[in-house]
Amino acid sequence: MGLLISSEPPEVAGTQTISRAFRALRLVAAQAPHGIRLVDLALQMGLERPTAHRLLKALVQEGMLVQQSGSRRYSLGPQLFELGISATHQFNLKDMCQPVCAALAEQTGDTSFLFLRSGLDAVCIARIQGSYPIQTPSVPIGSRQPLGVSAGGLALLVALSEADRASVIAAVEPRLAAYGNLDADKLKDLCAVAKRVGYASTGNHAVPGVRAIGLPIFDRSNTPIAAITVAATQARMDARRIATVLPWLQAAALEVTRLLHQ
C-alpha cells in the first residue's frame, strides 16, 4: 500500500492552517474572559476534536493561548498581548479618537463609544459618559459582541458588501441567541433598516432599556474598521432626539475618518 499523499499543494495546506489558527484565536477571544472548551471550539470550526486539539496545542506552545488549569478552557495568551503592545505605536485608534469621543459626549450629554472590528466581532475600545443625569448601563471597555449586536457592530456590518454581510451573519448566527430574541432574520431586518435610514440603531437585544445609534469609520482603502456610537435610555433616544444627535454623530465619524487618512 502506498503512502497517503495530500491532494492539496503545500502552499494551500499552509494557508488553510494559518486561516484556522486565526479563526481559533477569534473564537477564543469572543469568549473572553472565561475561555472556550475544546469541544465547543471544534464544533464551531467544524473540525474533528483531534484536529482542533492539535491546533490549540500548537497555539499554546507559541504563547498565543493558555489552558486554564482548573476548567481546561482555552483563553488568550501573553504573546498576543506583547504583539498588541508592539503594534500600538503604529495604530492607536483609541488615543487618536479620544478627543472626538469626548467632544461627542459633551455635545450630546450622553455616552459615546468607539468600537473596533475584530474578525466577526466588534470590540469596545473607548467609552466616555456625558453630563446628562441618567446615563446608560455601561458596555465594558474590552468587551466584544458579534457584529450586528451593538450599534457599532451593526454599523460595521451594514458597511460591508452584500456578500460579506451575508457571510458574517451566517457565521455569527449560532451566537445570536444569547442576545434576547435576536436571530439571523431579525439581524437582516436591522441591516435593511440601517441602510434605508443611513445609521445603525439597536434596541433591547444589545443592552436592555438602552437605545444607541452608530456610524462606521473607514480606513484609507475604504474598509470599515471601526464605528462610533451614542447611547441613551430608550425613553430619551426617541426619533426626535435621534434627529438632534445624528448630525453630531456624523461630524464625529467624519473627523475620525479624517484623522485616520492623515
The CATH level-2 architecture of the largest domain is identified as 2-Layer Sandwich
Overall shape: it is globular
Number of strands: 8
Any idea what the radius of gyration is?
20 Å
* Helix content, binned percent: 40-55%
Distance between the termini: 62 Å
SSE string, helices as H and strands as E = HHHEEHHEEEHHHEEEH
Instruction: State the CATH topology of the largest domain.
Output: Beta-Lactamase
Weakly predicted, low-confidence segments: 1-7
Number of H- or I-type helical stretches = 9
* Broad CATH class of the largest domain: Alpha Beta
Assign the structural class, choosing from mainly alpha, mainly beta, alpha/beta, alpha+beta, or little secondary structure.
Answer: alpha+beta
Strand order of the largest sheet: 5-4-3-8-7-6
Average pLDDT works out at 85
3D architecture notes:
- The chain has nine helices and eight strands.
- The protein has helices at 10-30, 38-45, 49-61, 78-88, 93-108, 151-158, 162-172, 184-197, 239-261; strands at residues 65-67, 74-76, 111-118, 121-128, 144-146, 200-202, 210-218, 224-233.
- The strands form two sheets. It has a six-stranded antiparallel beta sheet with strand order 5-4-3-8-7-6, with helices on both faces. A two-stranded antiparallel ribbon has the order 1-2.
- A hairpin with a 6-residue loop joins strand 1 and strand 2.
- The longest helix is centred in the C-terminal third of the chain and has 23 residues, at 239-261.
- The radius of gyration is 20 Å and the shape is globular.
- The relative contact order is 0.11.
- Mean pLDDT is 85; it is low at 1-7.
